[in-house]
């Protein structure tokens, strides 16, 4: 017959074993779990990822300033983009990486799964606690910018709108152009306020 102390020993052993399992997953992980993890991060180890975007975030008309910052990081060796995303959306990031002298690759692998669309990869294990970034639209709305202006990324806007967005977040400067006198002459208007 089992004594109470036997039960205690058994349950504490079970807990410990679960804890150890969790630690293993977080640190060095058994091979099959590492493979699962790599399938989520476009074939990269989670601890090598500095920043990542979801597929929907890559499809935003604007470039995420967080990715610009991550590409500038001296530890960064390159960037991976999911092959599920149309070039129309991923092209802006590939161009950016090449301008910054960093490698980028499109990953076509049926083994990949999940919602990650882009990862910036470090040459060393970093284990950044939170690699995901806040949605650009939510962030800029919180800063008080109108949706029309947020969605005019990649287009030209008037001086007033330009100052509004770069005043709220200087990192957004990469996403907007200013209307020139010649644009005005040809009848082009601000893509946000239509003035
Ligand atoms: Zn405007």
Keywords:
single chain, 195 residues, 60s Ribosomal Protein L30, Chain: A, 3 domains, four-stranded mixed sheet, two-stranded parallel sheet, 6 strands, elongated, disordered N terminus, binds zinc ion
Overview of this protein structure:
The structure is a single chain. With 195 residues, the chain is α/β, with parallel strands linked by helices. It has three domains: 1-40; 41-122, 60s Ribosomal Protein L30, Chain: A; 136-185, no CATH class. The chain has nine helices and six strands. The chain has helices at residues 4-26, 31-40, 55-58, 65-72, 87-99, 136-142, 147-150, 159-168, 181-185, and strands spanning 49-54, 76-82, 103-107, 116-122, 156-157, 177-178. The protein has a four-stranded mixed β-sheet with strand order 1-4-2-3. Strands 5-6 form a two-stranded parallel sheet. Helix 8 (159-168) links the parallel strand 5 (156-157) and strand 6. The chain binds zinc ion (ZN). Residues 157-158, 160-161, 190, 192-193, 195 line the site of zinc ion.
In short:
The protein is an alpha/beta fold. The protein contains 9 helices and 6 strands, in the order H-H-E-H-H-E-H-E-E-H-H-E-H-E-H.
Shape: elongated
The CATH superfamily of the largest domain bears the name Ribosomal protein L30/S12
What is the highest CATH level, the class of the largest domain? Alpha Beta
Total domain count = 3
Strand order of the largest sheet: 1-4-2-3
Our count of helices gives 9
The second-level CATH architecture of the largest domain is 2-Layer Sandwich
**CATH topology descriptor of the largest domain:** 60s Ribosomal Protein L30, Chain: A
N- and C-termini, Cα separation: 86 Å
């Amino acid at each position: 017959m089992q004594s109470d102390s036997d039960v205690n020993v058994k349950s504490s052993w079970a807990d410990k074993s679960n804890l150890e399992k969790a630690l293993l997953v977080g640190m060095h992980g058994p091979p099959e779990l590492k493979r699962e993890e790599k399938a989520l991060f476009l074939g990269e180890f989670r601890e090598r990822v500095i920043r990542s975007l979801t597929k929907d975030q890559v499809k935003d008309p604007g470039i995420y300033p967080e990715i610009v910052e991550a590409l500038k990081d001296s530890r960064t060796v390159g960037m991976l983009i999911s092959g599920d995303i149309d070039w129309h959306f991923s092209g802006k990031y590939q161009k950016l990486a090449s301008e910054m002298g960093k490698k980028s690759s499109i990953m076509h692998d049926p083994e990949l799964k999940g919602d990650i669309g882009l990862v910036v990869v470090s040459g060393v294990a970093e284990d950044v606690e939170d690699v995901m970034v806040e949605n650009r639209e939510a962030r800029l709305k919180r800063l008080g910018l109108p949706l029309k202006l947020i969605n005019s990324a990649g287009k030209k806007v008037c001086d007033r709108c330009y100052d509004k967005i770069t005043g709220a977040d200087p990192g957004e400067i990469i996403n907007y152009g200013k209307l020139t006198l010649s644009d005005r002459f040809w009848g082009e208007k601000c893509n946000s306020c239509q003035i």
